[in-house]
Design brief:
Layout (H helix, E strand, L loop, with lengths): L3 E8 L2 E8 L7 E6 L9 H12 L2 E6 L11 H17 L7 E6 L1 H12 L3 E7 L13 H5 L5 E7 L8 H12 L4 E6 L9 H19 L1
Parallel strand pairs: 3-4, 3-5, 5-6, 6-7, 7-8
Antiparallel strand pairs: 1-2, 2-4
Helix pairs in contact: 1-6, 2-3
Length: about 220
């Protein structure tokens, strides 16, 4: 089990509670892990992803958005919160400045914004991420991620009925058109949160191995 540290993430006039999972050995880099709308950082698939990343040599930072309960997050506030997490990773003495982001559902759309706007991000995982959130024309995850310098992994559960697989195909089409390296992995038997346990384990292994390879 990787050691976990409580950390504060300063965003505007608030301090978010974060948990940093550090590898037992020297880290190859670090990744912010973003939960979904109505979720929280203690959900099994979020914790398991962070533990798998740390076991693969990637420091992982999970946290709750400012407005997560009841959920009132917007893409704008989520982006600011995620940027705060990236700052904490960048400043951490045990984390090399090779940075990634992993986002689930709403967090995947936020990850698309982060990857598009922060050139320090080398690797982005969009897991069950909607290609559009609401009808706010200002925030377009598809357009934003087309500008990224990161490699992108799209991960979907085969039983996801909340965010259909066509969202993955839309991301892949835009990324390929922009000549951004990308790939899609379907987790057989996984639902929107990659339950039950077997698919979840496959998902975390897939993300951790890919992130380590991308950051190393």
């Amino acid at each position: 089990m990787s050691p976990a540290q409580r950390v504060g993430i300063r965003v505007e006039n608030t301090e978010l509670d974060g948990v940093m999972h550090l590898p037992d050995t020297s880290a190859v880099g670090g990744a912010a892990v973003l939960h979904g709308f109505g979720g929280d950082p203690d959900q099994p698939h979020i914790v398991a992803t962070c533990e798998a990343l740390a076991n693969a040599g990637v420091a992982a930072l999970r946290f709750a958005y400012r407005d997560h309960r009841p959920p009132r997050m917007t893409l704008a506030s989520g982006l600011a919160d995620a940027a705060g997490a990236i700052r904490v990773l960048k400043a951490h003495p045990d984390v090399p400045e090779r940075l990634g982001v992993v986002g689930f559902s709403f967090g995947g759309a936020v990850a698309a914004l982060v990857a598009g706007r922060d050139s320090r991000v080398r690797a982005a995982v969009l897991a069950a991420a909607p290609a559009q959130i609401g009808d706010d024309a200002k925030w377009k995850p598809l357009a934003e991620i087309s500008r990224t310098r990161a490699r992108v992994l799209l991960v979907w559960g085969s039983r996801d009925t909340q965010v259909p697989f066509e969202n993955a195909e839309r991301y892949a089409a835009v990324l390929s058109q922009a000549r951004v390296p990308n790939s899609i992995v379907t987790i057989d038997g996984g639902d929107h949160d990659f339950s039950p346990a077997g698919p979840r384990a496959k998902m975390t292994e897939t993300i951790a191995d890919w992130m380590r390879e991308s950051l190393a």
